[in-house]
């Protein structure tokens, strides 16, 4: 392989490695975003359950739950 072909080959290898690294980083970012979304949904559900518990406690205390 002459020098020109070798340089072209190495450039292609470097490009492929950079693309793969970029894909891996995008996948990690996507996973982090999905995890954050799920955490926020869980936090929202917990807050909603606590609010409902507070409403039920007030209803019980005031006799509105009968």
Overall description:
This protein is mainly α and 66 residues long. It contains one helix and no strands.
What would a concise description of this structure say?
The chain has 66 residues and is mostly helical. Helix content is 91%, strand content 0%. The N and C termini lie far apart (89 Å).
Task: Name the average pLDDT.
Answer: 93
Q: What structural category do the secondary elements indicate?
A: mainly alpha
* Strand runs, count: 0
Global geometry: rod-shaped
Strand proportion = under 5%
What is the N-to-C succession of helices and strands? Answer: H
Low-confidence stretches: none
Q: Gyration radius, to the nearest Å? A: 28 Å
Helical residue percent band: over 70%
Q: Total number of helical segments?
A: 1
Region (Disordered): 1-66
Biased composition (Low complexity): 41-54
Protein name: Stress-induced protein KIN2-like
InterPro entries: LEA1/2/D7/KIN2 (IPR039624)
């Amino acid at each position: 392989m002459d020098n020109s072909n070798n340089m072209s080959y190495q450039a292609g290898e470097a490009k492929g490695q950079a693309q793969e690294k970029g894909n891996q980083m995008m996948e990690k970012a996507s996973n982090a975003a999905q995890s954050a979304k799920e955490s926020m949904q869980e936090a929202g559900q917990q807050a909603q359950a606590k609010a409902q518990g507070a409403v039920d406690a007030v209803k019980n205390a005031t006799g509105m739950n009968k």
